[in-house]
Amino acid sequence: MDAQAIQAAQRQLQSLIDGLFRVQLVTSFDLIAISIYMFDWLATFEMEVELVWKSNWNFMKVLFLLQRYLPFVDSTGLILYIKFGSNLNTVTCKRLYTASGYMMATGTALAELILTLRVWAVWHRDRKLMVLLPMLYVGCWAPIMYFMYRFLTSLQFVTLPGSLHYVLGTDCFIVEADRIFAMVWVMLMVLQACILILMLIPGYHAYRAGGDSALYNTIYRDGSIYYLYLFALSTINIIVIRVLPHGYENLFTGIERCVHSMLSSRVLLHIRSHARRQEFGAPHWADGVTDLPFSEDSDPSSSSARFDTVSGQSYRSIVIQRTQVTSEKVI
After folding, report:
1. Which sign does the torsion angle of CA 295, 213, 225, 34 carry?
2. How many CB atoms lie within 10 A of CB 42?
3. 261-274 confidence digits (pLDDT tens)
4. Can you give the residue ranges of the DUF6533 domain (predicted)?
5. 26 exposure class (CB count in 10 Å sphere: 0-12, 13-18, 19+)
6. Fold type of domain 25-281
7. Global pTM?
8. What is the distance between the alpha carbons of residues 37 and 97, in angstroms, rounded to a whole number?
9. Helix%, strand%, coil% for the chain, nearest 5
10. Closest C-alpha among 140, 148, 41, 139 to residue 104
11. What three-state secondary structure class fits 304?
12. Residues with Cβ < 8 Å from 295, sequence gap 6 or more?
C-alpha cells in the first residue's frame, strides 16, 4: 500500500471518529434537554393539576395541554427511539427524524402562540394588534415551516455496523444536511424580537405607573426575561449551524424546543397562580393569557367599563390604555 492510500485511509478514519464524536455529543445534549424538561414538568405538575386539570375545557386549556405534552412525544419518545433503537434502516431513520422535526415545529409554534396572545393581552386586546400580530405570526411561521421542509428532505442517513451500534447506541447516522436549517432560527429570532419589543413598551409604562410589584414581575419582567432566553438560544443555534462542522445542526434544537414549552407553560401557570393568591377571580381556569389579573388596590375611578364573558365569572385584567396601567372588571 503506497503512502497516498495510507493517508487517504487515515483521513477517512479520522472523519469517521469525528462523526462518531459529534453523534455522541448531540445525543448528550438531547438527553440534557429531556432531563431539564422532565424536571420542570415535575416541579410544576402540582400547580398544573390545580389550575388546569380541575378547570373547564376551553381553547386556552387545549392550547396549553397540547404544547405542554407534545415534548413527551417529539423530544422524548421519538428522539430516544432514534438514538437508542435497534435494527433501524435509512428509510426508518428519515421517517422518524421527519416526524420528530414537524412535531417539534408544531409544538414550538403553539408555545409561541401562547406568548403572542399574552402580548395582545397586555396591549388591552388592541384592534390594530389583533390584525398585526396574526400577520407577524403567520409571516414568520410560514417561512419557518418551508425551511423545515427543506432541511428535513435534505437529510441523508447511513446505517452503522452492529459493532458501532453498541458504541454509539444508535443506527441513524446523518451524513448530509442542508444548512438552510439556520433560517428557521433566524425567522424565529425575528418573531421573538418583535414580541419582546411589544412586551417592553407596556412594561416600561407599568413600571413607571407603579402598583402591584408581584404582578409586574409575573407579567412583564418574567415575560421579557423569558424572551431574552429564547432569543439567546436562537442566536446560539444559528452560530452552531453556520460555524461548526456538519453534524452539529441539531446540537441545541432539543434544548430550545423543551425550553419553549417550559417557559410558555410557566407564563400561564404563574399568571393564574398570582390571580389565585390574590383572589381576583374564580378558582377555575378562565383564560390566563388574554385576561390578566390586576391589583384590587387600583383606583376604581380609573377602571374602564368593558365587559366580556368567560365562563360566567368575574375577575380583573391588565389594561394598557393611554400609556397608563388601569384595571377593568371583566364579567
Report:
1. negative
2. 9
3. 999 998 888 877 77
4. 31-73
5. buried
6. Rhopdopsin 7-helix transmembrane proteins (1.20.1070)
7. 0.79
8. 20
9. 70, 5, 20
10. 148
11. strand
12. 211, 212, 215, 278, 316, 327
